[in-house]
Amino acid sequence: MNETGVRVVTTDAEREDAFAVRRDVFVEEQGVDEELEYDEYDEPGADATHFVAYDDGEIVGAARLREADPGVGKVERVVVAERRRGEDWGKRVMEAVEATAREQGYEKLKLHAQTRVEGFYESLNYESVGEEFVEADIPHVEMRKPL
């Protein structure tokens, strides 16, 4: 168990692992208020799909997918552990999210990207729409991609 790869969260332990890496990056590293980081879509039984990435048992990333509008999925809480950035984990997490989104019948995805990682999402064929905005005291831009 907990080998290498990105998986859909199916156990409480995997959920806690996903939350742990989110806490490390968003709350500890970026200073996001914990009350903003966790919301109703993180509650057990909420209508959201969570992902966790492992490398030989080490927790290296996470993400969340939920329905924003009919046929449109919203990708949220995409994170890679600081010490593992630059190793393609972000791409692997997003590939798993997109594959699951297709399986769930979404026709397009949208996300709120921190502006400093906008180029990462552009490399995955997401396009920025609208103006920059602030979320959790961090500049973001909305991005979209047809599936």
From TrEMBL:
Q: Give yes or no: UniProt keyword Cell membrane.
A: no
Ranges in coiled-coil conformation? none
Swiss-Prot/TrEMBL keywords: Acyltransferase, Transferase
Question: Highest taxon of the source?
Answer: Archaea
A GO molecular function term, named singly, is: acyltransferase activity, transferring groups other than amino-acyl groups
Residue span, N-acetyltransferase domain = 4-147
Pfam families linked to this entry: Acetyltransf_10
Q: Which SUPFAM superfamilies match?
A: Acyl-CoA N-acyltransferases (Nat)
PANTHER family listed in its UniProt record: AMINOALKYLPHOSPHONATE N-ACETYLTRANSFERASE-RELATED, AMINOALKYLPHOSPHONATE N-ACETYLTRANSFERASE-RELATED-RELATED
The protein's name in its UniProt record: GNAT family N-acetyltransferase
Traced from the root, the source organism's taxonomic lineage reads: Archaea, Methanobacteriati, Methanobacteriota, Stenosarchaea group, Halobacteria
